[in-house]
Please model this.
Amino acid sequence: MARTPTPHNEAVAGQIAPFVLMPGDPLRAKRLAEAYLEGVEQFNGVRNMLGYTGTYQGSPVSVMGSGMGMPSIGIYSYELFNFYGVESIVRIGTAGGVAPSVRLRDIVLGMGACTDSNYAHQFNVPGTLAPIADFGLLRRAADAAERLGYPVRVGNVLSSDVFYNDDRTAEQRWAKMGVLAVEMESAALYLNAMRAHRRALTILTVTDVVSRGEALTAEERQESLTQMMEVALSLAKPEQVLRN
Model:
């Protein structure tokens, strides 16, 4: 484990839990920590990328912002995995629906993360590397969403480097390949986890479907984000092996 603190994280070894929730917005990280965790202590404020550690039903949990885009989450997740000994990172965020079957409020679990980014080129593999989620986290999240009665979809998401795309037909071409939703971070998170032999999963709430001109109101967004958080926090508890 490299020496800490880092240029981007002032935490010292032991201040960050093995399980980390990672929203994009650092202020959302603050709100989530205060709303869901007990005994909260702030461990990072460098560049206002806020990070907190507490407990959820007795399990240690950290919440830290990732910023927007793959370069940003690439830095923070790399350091968490490689410098702070984090075992699992669950990205919790919002997304735009792409597939015609996706509806507002759907919870999307990113089984894989297609991308238009060059982030994977650094690994110099002799082919195309597929960024994928950890199956154990994915399976548990799907089970939790179904148990709670929340609308859940499992499949490919698109991690794009471009928010305002000059090519207005791009999303349609991803949709025809079955991509469910578009966001901007998951591919880098998954690739970092794969390289570090750690675990990662993205859980998204669909807050808009541009092709149909639909979007959630602020109140509706909050209700849906609460559902997503319940699913994400269920993963903080140690996995139980059920025997007959």
Remarks:
- Strands lie at 19-22, 38-44, 51-56, 59-64, 88-97, 107-115, 152-159, 181-183, 199-209, 214-215.
- Helices lie at 26-36, 70-82, 135-148, 170-175, 186-196, 218-234.
- DSSP finds six helices and ten strands in the chain.
